[in-house]
Specification:
alpha/beta; 7-stranded mixed beta sheet; 9 helices; globular
């Protein structure tokens, strides 16, 4: 089968497209999905670079969707049929076929296009746990939250979901993505210059902490959702309110450097570094999150932007596009 494979970690060109990679074998309790789309996420770039170690060689990706092509007896007993429209998250999705445990499948309603459904799996579920669970209920309805990079994929979702939860939202966004961000319903947008020669935000171009304090009458925010990392860690911590929480979930600008826990004492602040898999620990939790997201999509309460679709043959180009900060929504491979 065709697959985008990493045999040695490195830059985007470490993703090599192979036409004869072995097709997966179906095990008990699994199905084989014929992929229509695979999502491209920053975590895929961390795997490719070796920041998050995986055994080599490996097929990239961890988000896909399409139709069920083969069903094990155990999966059939659960009512899964050949031809079912499904989305899912397992490792190894930059390919034509993926073996997926039946428990990981998300049935895709006919009202939701497949590219949108695949966009939901990692970015949508990530935004959902960030706005419902990762903050440990330290933020309440009517409280302020700061979300960095709302012009990009995951945090477009997060800004909208935070509003659906009743939070007041301050979003940061680059000038080049400001038009996208204005449609998200943020209560306040902090528009930043772009790094010269790039498409991502220059977080030194505006005094964000000062603006956050102005907007919140000097209180700060109860929660910061930060997928940027190195460039924003100081901004995030300094923007917190008393007993606020810094939710650091990504490294778009580089990994957050170590810092002494004593730094949090000034506001008795909290910090967490969560990951999606710890918030979909069983099928009940997975389906609850997915059904809520699909419901918002079907009702028009949530808007999803599919920015760009690359053919799998252009695998390296997809990673280069994402890493350059150019995306204004979800980036996909069409298989």
């Amino acid at each position: 089968m065709k697959a985008a494979v990493v045999r040695e970690t490195g830059d985007a060109h470490a993703l090599g497209v192979e036409s004869d990679f072995p097709s997966p074998e179906m095990k008990a309790g699994q199905v084989i999905v014929k992929n229509q789309y695979a999502g491209i996420n920053f975590i895929d770039t961390y795997h490719r670079k070796g920041l998050y170690a995986r055994d080599l060689p490996f097929v990239g990706g961890q988000e896909g969707g399409g139709t069920v092509a083969a069903v094990s007896d155990e999966a059939a007993a659960e009512g899964i049929k050949v031809g079912d429209r499904v989305a899912y998250s397992v490792l190894g999705t930059y390919c034509e076929y993926t073996a997926v445990p039946a428990a990981k499948l998300l049935p895709v309603p006919d009202s939701v296009p497949m590219d949108v459904a695949v966009s939901c799996v990692v970015q949508g579920l990530t935004a959902h746990y960030l706005t419902t669970s990762a903050h440990a209920d330290l933020i309440k309805e009517g409280d302020w939250t700061l979300i960095h990079g709302v012009g990009g994929g995951t945090c477009q979702w997060a800004a909208q979901m935070a509003k659906l939860r009743g939070f007041k939202v301050i979003g940061t966004v680059s000038k080049g993505k400001a038009e996208v961000a204005t449609r998200l319903g943020c209560d306040e947008l902090i528009v930043l210059d772009e790094v010269p020669g790039a498409s991502y935000e220059d977080y030194d171009s505006v005094d964000i902490v000062k603006r956050v304090m102005e907007v919140t009458d000097g209180e700060g925010v109860k929660c910061v959702i930060d997928g940027i990392g190195k460039s924003t860690v100081d901004i995030s911590i300094n923007s917190l309110a008393h007993r606020g929480i810094f939710v650091s979930f990504g490294n778009a600008s580089g990994a957050v450097p170590a810092f002494p826990v004593l730094r949090l004492i000034g506001k008795s602040a909290y910090v967490t570094r969560p990951k999606l898999l710890d918030y979909i620990t069983n099928r009940e939790e997975l389906v609850w999150r997915a059904n809520e997201i699909f419901g918002w999509l079907s009702n028009g309460e949530l808007s999803v932007s599919v920015d760009t679709t690359f053919p799998l043959d252009s695998a390296a180009d997809g990673h280069l596009y994402l890493e350059a900060g150019r995306s204004k929504g979800k980036v996909l491979y069409e298989i």
